[in-house]
Amino acid sequence: MPTIKELQTLVDYERFNPAVSPEFDGAACGLGCIDLSDPSCSCTLMDGYWSSTQLNADLQRALGVKFNLGLVAHQPKHARAAVRAVRDAVLQSFPARGQEELDGAATKLSSSQGSS
């Protein structure tokens, strides 16, 4: 489950209902989506989503984001809310060998752009 800071990275305050970029609220959202890896099937409810961050003043409450407007709120842990996965930077998920290959590719790309 994401922390409140990770969950807030999805918020786009230039949008509302839901306050996320189109990448997180695809055009084909809902029924009819059969390929969950298709970005157009990504859905964001205009409701609260849990984070793993507890409210310091009351450990029976946790923070979440209400994606209709992108607001942070707290609610009792027994309340109903959705959960949204948030992935850390892609490069951090690669094993060491894969990271070296990506770094090498990035170096080649930047040196080829500098020679033009």
Written description of the protein model:
With about 120 residues, the chain is of the alpha+beta class. It has two domains: about 5-85, no CATH class; about 90-115, no CATH class. About 20% of the residues lie in helices and about 20% in strands. The chain has two helices and three strands; from the N terminus they run αβββα. It has helices at about 5-10, 95-115, and strands spanning about 50-55, 60-65, 70-75. A three-stranded antiparallel β-sheet has the order 1-2-3. The longest helix has 19 residues, at about 95-115. The protein is elongated, with a radius of gyration of 18 Å. It starts with a helix and ends with a helix.
Task: Give the structure's gist in a few sentences.
The protein is of the alpha+beta class.
Task: Describe the structure using short key phrases.
116 residues, 2 domains, three-stranded antiparallel beta sheet, elongated, disordered C terminus
For the sheet with most strands, the description reads: 3 strands, antiparallel
What is the count of DSSP helices, taking H or I runs of 4+ residues?
Answer: 2
Q: Termini distance? A: 45 Å
Broad shape: elongated
Mean pLDDT: 77
Work out the number of β strands. 3
The fraction of residues assigned to DSSP E strands is: 15-25%
Q: State the helical fraction.
A: 10-25%
- Widest β-sheet, arrangement of strands: 1-2-3
Structural class: alpha+beta
Tell me the radius of gyration.
18 Å
Low-confidence stretches: 89-99, 105-116
Summarize the helix and strand pattern as letters. HEEEH
User: How many domain modules?
Assistant: 2
